[in-house]
Amino acid sequence: MKRIHGLFVGLSLMAAAGGCAGKDNLLVLTPDDSGRVGALKVSNDGGEAVLDREGQALHLGDRHTPPGALAPVSSEERALFAAALAAQPLAPVSYLLYFEFDSNNLTAESRQRLDDILRAARERDSRDLLVIGHTDRAGDADYNAALSLQRAEAVRELLAGKGIGAEFIQVSSHGEGNPLIPTADEVAEARNRRVEVVVR
Amino acid sequence: MKKILFFCTGMFLLGSFAAAQTEPAHIGRVKGTSGMVSIQRAGALKPAFPNMKVYLNDTLLTGSDGAVGILLEDNTLLSMGPMSRLALDKFDFSPAQNKYALQLRMEQGTFVYLSGLLGKLAPHAVSLDTPSGTISMLKDTNFMARFGGDE
């Protein structure tokens, strides 16, 4: 029993040392790429607080301590996150490639974009690319399902030919069912004859 | 007709069960590491490296010089600095079934959270447990957080 007690004291001292080593717990609301922030709520046994403005900082204690007052984040506080910010991965990026009518030939302009895709894949050391084929609504749905898959596979081959491992590329196709520009059936719409490539 | 439907449902459930048994789906990937970074999975600790898949119930840990960034399947981006610990408790991103969940446990350290599709499509399905209480998303947002450790 004594030994158990000793262990407990030891553990709680460790916990206390861990708790005091830093300053308070801290939460900071940050904007997205377009400068927009949303809102979040922290709740615990002591109460709750809502953050909904860019750069708002909230100091917190343990689960029983009521959340502190909201204040603008200071540069010292921002500095705490330098290592985590430096480790932030690049966000996935997606590209649209367009095709000639009733064909799996890329338009000349889209052919030029392949190098951008390669660069994005290299920057991310990506082993996770999605290639999703689509068609317009000219022709019947079954034919378009096959055509959209052919388009996606053609793009996979082009990317693999430029050095991206084919095993890292997942192909799927949506036929005419997921148009970028909604049209009536049987309408040929160049912007719907596309393959989306997502580099993750 | 009813019987056929029942049979189909049964087959479907069996199918998804079998799939779940053979290979659990990953929920994201490690995208970058520096210094010492490990993943605790089923009681074992293994070093983390870029492009490693992460699974439900994994815990990510960084050493005193460590930092790591991960990308979840819904495009949520998470990164953490030294002496940090993050548990991946719940993840469901199934727009076709309208099923969404993201529950993470930020146990200790520094975190940068960049919201993904889960935050956009279902902010109320996002919840983060921390030593200071529970963070819930009211409206899709990014944030940073720091926790000294458990009380």
Write the layout of secondary structure elements.
The complex is a heterodimer of chains A (200) and B (151).
Chain A: H1 2-21, E1 25-30, E2 39-44, E3 47-51, E4 56-60, E5 70-72, H2 75-79, H3 82-86, E6 93-98, H4 108-123, E7 129-133, H5 141-161, E8 169-173, E9 194-199
Parallel strand pairs in A: 7-8
Antiparallel strand pairs in A: 1-4, 2-3, 4-5, 6-9, 7-9
Chain B: H1 2-22, E1 28-34, E2 37-41, E3 44-47, E4 53-54, E5 59-62, E6 67-72, E7 77-80, E8 85-94, E9 99-114, H2 117-121, E10 126-130, E11 133-139, E12 142-147
Parallel strand pairs in B: 9-10
Antiparallel strand pairs in B: 1-4, 1-6, 2-3, 2-5, 5-8, 6-7, 7-9, 8-9, 9-12, 10-11
CATH topological fold name of the largest domain in chain A: 60s Ribosomal Protein L30, Chain: A
* Overall strand count of chain A: 9
Total domain modules of chain B:
1
Number of helical segments with 4 or more residues of chain A: 5
Indicate the structural class of chain A.
Answer: alpha+beta
Radius of gyration of chain A: 26 Å
Describe the structure.
The complex is a heterodimer of chains A (200) and B (151). Chain A is an alpha+beta fold and 200 residues long. Chain A folds into two domains: 22-86, no CATH class; 93-199, OmpA-like domain (60s Ribosomal Protein L30, Chain: A, 2-Layer Sandwich), CATH 3.30.1330.60. Chain A is 34% helix and 24% strand. In chain A, a hairpin with a 2-residue loop joins strand 2 (39-44) and strand 3 (47-51). The model of chain A is unreliable at 6-22 (pLDDT under 50). Chain B has one domain. Chain B has helices at 2-22, 117-121; strands at 28-34, 37-41, 44-47, 53-54, 59-62, 67-72, 77-80, 85-94, 99-114, 126-130, 133-139, 142-147. In chain B, strands 1, 2, 3, 4, 5, 6, 7, 8, 9, 10, 11 and 12 form a twelve-stranded mixed beta sheet that branches. Classes of the chains: A alpha+beta (200), B alpha+beta (151). Chains A and B meet through helix 1, strand 1, strand 2, strand 3 and helix 3 of A and strand 1, strand 6, strand 7, strand 9 and strand 11 of B. Strand 2 of chain A pairs antiparallel with strand 11 (133-139) of chain B.
